[in-house]
Amino acid sequence: MKRRALPLAAALTLLPALASAFPVTEIQQAGPSTQRFNVVILGDGYRASEQGKLTSDAKTLVSELFNDVPYQSYRQLFNFKVIQSISQDSGAAAPGSK
Domain span at residue 28? Predict the structure, then answer.
């Protein structure tokens, strides 16, 4: 058990450093993260030059999600962030196409 505890402790120690490897863009901060549902949007298929489009698409997604009743009244219960992960290829590929 002690052999497993050391790698686990090392991984948990390094986790915050790994999480900060990609820039994060805040779309909506409705309140403290301990008192809200926190949603992270990851873009797949957005190259470095397309990160602005990722943020724009994420904002559109959030707006569309809360555009209708009864969802409009729940919007302030959510925080939204986008993790700007960089893809080498633009667009989504069909499963098994690579």
Answer: 22-83
